[in-house]
Each structure stands twice: as structure tokens, then as C-alpha cells.
């Protein structure tokens, strides 16, 4: 089984810089190229200085509690003896901030530079509708048997048309009950697992900031303990996820 994990960019970043990429740097391709090279350790003359290289793998760039939980879940699954026929890939539905400047969506192994891009007016999160063509997100998802969305609610809303177009891929959204309306789970392949304050209170170490990551980590731990058939079971019945994580309290 091929499993895709979608996660949002977050503000807490491994590479600190006094002048990270800002929204003003996105306005002109030449300026963006220059800033990315600068943040990747290159001088205007083309010389590379490791001490000035603030880039990092996307899977390691974000240091918040949520991403720490996701990384731990992935780490445990990937070192398991059953890993291979079943695989998990982490992607961010954006093609911005890449060191290589490719148009592909950002995989956890792609290098990105630090950024502090203020959201557009009226939006709290990164505008993926602006930064990544929806067709690329759809094409990526079509390559997988199961998709776990750990995205923030604003990012789910921006990608809503993609999620509603795909009919063959099972999609499981970890989302707070107050935002359940953002996902159209009337569709047969779209499922919501409610991850709200009540659940956070029942799980050790969980809070409103890391809850989706904690649930994902606990699901990975169950699969490592009981066998990777757990992923197929939750694909058939996504609500089992809540039973699985609560049994591990």
C-alpha cells in the first residue's frame, strides 16, 4: 500500500535568519531567485559558504510540536521490518521556497529556505491555491492508495476542489469538529476523524497544537506493534483510528 501524508508548513523553523523570505520577495522571479541563493549560502559572485547556508530538508525544517510527532511516527514505521511493500511519503502541498526552484510539490527530502510570508488579507494560513497549482496536488494524490490529511483547516479549504474531485483515493482528514464542515464527507471516499479538544484531554502529551501529530504517531505505533494490516483496516473503517489511539493512552 502506498500512503501519502499531507502536512502544512508552520512558522517554527529550524533555520533562523534575520531576513528570511518575505511576501515581497515573491513578487519578481529574479528577486526570488537571488534571495533563495542568498539563503542557501551563495554570494552574489556565486561562491558558496556553508556557514551562510540556512536551507534544510523540508521534513526537518519545521520544529513545532506537531511536526515532531509526525517525524517520530514516520521514523518508527520506516525502521520496521514490514516497511517496503507499504510505504509512507510526506509532502507539503506547496512548490514555494525550494532551493532547486523546481515546480514540483515539496517532498520531505527537498531542501527549502526559511521564510516568514505574511498571509494574504482574509487568510490565516499559507494560500496553497496561490502557491501550488491544484492540478499538481491532484496528480500527486492519484498515485496513492490512502491519503492522510494533517493539514490546517485553512489549507484544507484552499484545496477543497481537489479533495472533492478525486473519487478513487481514500482520504482521511484529521480535523477539529468545529471545522468539520470544511470537508465534504458525504463523498464515499472522504472521511473525517474528529481531532478536537475533547480528544486532546484524553491523550497524554496532546494539546490543540500537536493533536493531529499525536494521533498520527499513535496510529504508526499501533501499526508497528500489531502489523501493517492496521493501515488497511483504517482505510476500510477510518473511525477505528480513534479506538486505536485511545487504547494506547
Structural commentary:
The protein contains eleven helices and ten strands. It has 249 residues and is of the alpha/beta class. Strand 2 and strand 3 (48-53) form a beta hairpin. Helix 3 (65-78) packs parallel to helix 9 (211-226) and helix 9 crosses helix 11 (240-247). The longest helix is centred in the last third of the chain and has 16 residues, at 211-226. The two termini are 27 Å apart. The relative contact order is 0.16. The mean pLDDT is 92.
Defining traits:
249 residues, two-stranded antiparallel ribbon, 11 helices, 37% helix, globular
- Supply the number of helical segments: 11
Instruction: State the share of residues found in helices, binned by percent.
Output: 25-40%
Distance between the termini: 27 Å
Radius of gyration: 18 Å
The shape, in one word, is: globular
Q: How many β-strand stretches?
A: 10
Sketch the topology as an H/E string, one letter per element. EHEEEHHEEEHHEHHEEHHHH
Main sheet summary: 6 strands, mixed
Structural class: alpha/beta
- Mean pLDDT across the residues is 92
Query: Which stretches of 5+ consecutive residues score pLDDT under 50?
Result: none
Strand content: 15-25%
* Strand ordering within the main sheet: 6-5-1-8-9-10
Amino acid at each position: 500500500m502506498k500512503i501519502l501524508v499531507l502536512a502544512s508548513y508552520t512558522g517554527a523553523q529550524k533555520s533562523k535568519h534575520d531576513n528570511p523570505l518575505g511576501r515581497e520577495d515573491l513578487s519578481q522571479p529574479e528577486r526570488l531567485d537571488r534571495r533563495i541563493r542568498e539563503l542557501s549560502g551563495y554570494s552574489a559572485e556565486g561562491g558558496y559558504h556553508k556557514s551562510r547556508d540556512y536551507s534544510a530538508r523540508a521534513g526537518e525544517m519545521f520544529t513545532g510540536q506537531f511536526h515532531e510527532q509526525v517525524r517520530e511516527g514516520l521514523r518508527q514505521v520506516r525502521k520496521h521490518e514490514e516497511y517496503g511493500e507499504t510505504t509512507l511519503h510526506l509532502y507539503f502541498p506547496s512548490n514555494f521556497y525550494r532551493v532547486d526552484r523546481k515546480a514540483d510539490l515539496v517532498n520531505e527530502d527537498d531542501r527549502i529556505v526559511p521564510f516568514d510570508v505574511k498571509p494574504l488579507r482574509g487568510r490565516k494560513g499559507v494560500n496553497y491555491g496561490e502557491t501550488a497549482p491544484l492540478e499538481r496536488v491532484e496528480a500527486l494524490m492519484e498515485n496513492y492508495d490512502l491519503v492522510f490529511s494533517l493539514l490546517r483547516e485553512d489549507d484544507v479549504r484552499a484545496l477543497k476542489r481537489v479533495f472533492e474531485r478525486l473519487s478513487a483515493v481514500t482520504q482521511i482528514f484529521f480535523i477539529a469538529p468545529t471545522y468539520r464542515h470544511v470537508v465534504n464527507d458525504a463523498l464515499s471516499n472522504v472521511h473525517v476523524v474528529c481531532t478536537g479538544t475533547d480528544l486532546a484531554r484524553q491523550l497524554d502529551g496532546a494539546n490543540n497544537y500537536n493533536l493531529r501529530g499525536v494521533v498520527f504517531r499513535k496510529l504508526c505505533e499501533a501499526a508497528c506493534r500489531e502489523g501493517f494490516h492496521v493501515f488497511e483496516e483504517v482505510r476500510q473503517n477510518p473511525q477505528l483510528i480513534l479506538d486505536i489511539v485511545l487504547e494506547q493512552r
